[in-house]
Amino acid sequence: MSESAVQFPLRRVLLSDDVDPRCVAILADAGIDAQLKVGLAPDALIAELTSGGYEGLVVRSATKVNRQVLEAATALRVVGRAGTGVDNIDLNAASERGVLVLNAPGGNTVSAAEHACTLLLGLTRRVHLADASMRAGRWDRKKFLGTELHGKTLAVVGLGRIGREVANRMRAFGMRTIGYDPMVTPEQAKEFGVEWMELDKLWPEADAVTLHVPLLPHTENLVNARVLASCRRGVFIINAARGGLVQEADLLAALESGQCGGAGLDVFAVEPPQDARLLQHERVLTTPHLGASTIEAQSRVAVEIAEQFVRLARGEGVHGAVNGEGLAANPETAAWQLLARRLAQLAAAGVAAGLAGPNGDRLRLRLRAPAALARLARPLQAAAAAGALATRGESRGLVGAVAAANKQGIDVDFEVAEAEVVKKGAAAPTTLEIDCPDRRPGWSVGGVGSGPALTRCCGRELSQPLVLDGTVALLQAGAAQLPPVQRLLAAARSADGSCVVCRLDGPAAVEGSQLCVTFS
């Protein structure tokens, strides 16, 4: 089965961080050799991966999977994070090398949400200070005056699984929940009880802010001096998501001035954190990255990542593919991806052969699909990019294919095709088409997913679908040449290949042009 159907060879997997024993058991039951070797130094990790020939690696947060590791471990195909955050994995380097990165996005949802709520509740009632006072032998009931959450406004930044769970729990305390997430519409947010707002309108409304977004270039230092100044005076900041989302020096200054009423921090830009002033501030409640540290969460993420690996090995659909947007999640998607890949290979080969006019510095392929396939835009683009790369001798999987194609001067655009007019009662055709909008008009190929088969070439429908498998030959000829050419091709037809003749009219026709493509 091809990689477009999401199958990876996984014979040996290294687990380099301490994970629940069920992870090893699930892998072993599936016939995968799973080796648990915890606490390896960077050089020892590289040596183990290279000498052991591991195709898979399972980590938590301790192991750093950097570019050096990925470049040295040439057999590595998959890295799995038994948890949500993947800051310890170099995603760019992984994609460049075609290494799939998986995480376990659902396993620690409840634990992380409960921990964020715990930080907010403990902070507003100053539980950490009262506890320390009691341990010191004091009984001071008047010193630790707290704040009610009932009637206050909680801003939830990031409305994924964890953010939604936090919002749901804090509404039980009578809080108004507002939120922002660029991937969630206002209508969707309303369905789970959150009033959606743009960030610049959200900050001034917030009595408390809780962060639930990944650490990306555009989210780094998301909460900074400007944002803190725009919040209500005395705002509470909760970060149980990723270190680096809060500019810690700005937070400390806001705590000192009273603009920030308190901060509950489970994660830090550098762990362990170095700034004692922040850790020891009386209005800061800290924990050492415990969001997912529950018995239940550790078991769930271990099972989830192990099951992901097993599904990959069996060629089944996966979820939690961090850099694998091109991977098919089901057989239907895989069929359309295979068509996109082979159409792109055919289209790019035609350009290289001069069928679309003089070659330029860059190749732009336009992938046109009906509205029914619009949801598959990214998987289809990845497949088309891999197909185009094949014409340049680069055998590439779907992971990182678009980025690799861009470096090779190949761009793949996606657009929804206009609906075709069909006879009453007939089903609308579901086809893909690829053309080269920057080249000579007329060069295009189209097909259907079952097969996969070519049904259209250069704007003309073929008399019968041509399966895109083995070797396909295209020969363009004038009307006078067609009969003898057809007889020649019929006589030369073999069991391991297919032939087709396309008749072209107008400026796109190139007498005698021929193209042979062997599909892998």
UniProtKB/TrEMBL annotation:
Q: Which InterPro entries match?
A: D-isomer_2_OHA_DH_cat_dom (IPR006139), D-isomer_DH_CS (IPR029753), D-isomer_DH_CS1 (IPR029752), D-isomer_DH_NAD-bd (IPR006140), NAD(P)-bd_dom_sf (IPR036291)
Please state what class of enzyme this protein is.
oxidoreductase
Entry superkingdom? Eukaryota
Domain D-isomer specific 2-hydroxyacid dehydrogenase catalytic intervals: 13-323
- Which Pfam family name is an example for this entry? 2-Hacid_dh_C
Gene Ontology MF term list: NAD binding; phosphoglycerate dehydrogenase activity
UniProt-listed Gene3D superfamilies: NAD(P)-binding Rossmann-like Domain
Q: Give the enzyme's EC designation.
A: 1.1.1.95
Which pathway is recorded for this entry?
Amino-acid biosynthesis; L-serine biosynthesis; L-serine from 3-phospho-D-glycerate: step 1/3
Domain D-isomer specific 2-hydroxyacid dehydrogenase NAD-binding, by residue range, is 118-291
> Family assignment?
Belongs to the D-isomer specific 2-hydroxyacid dehydrogenase family.
Protein name per the record: D-3-phosphoglycerate dehydrogenase
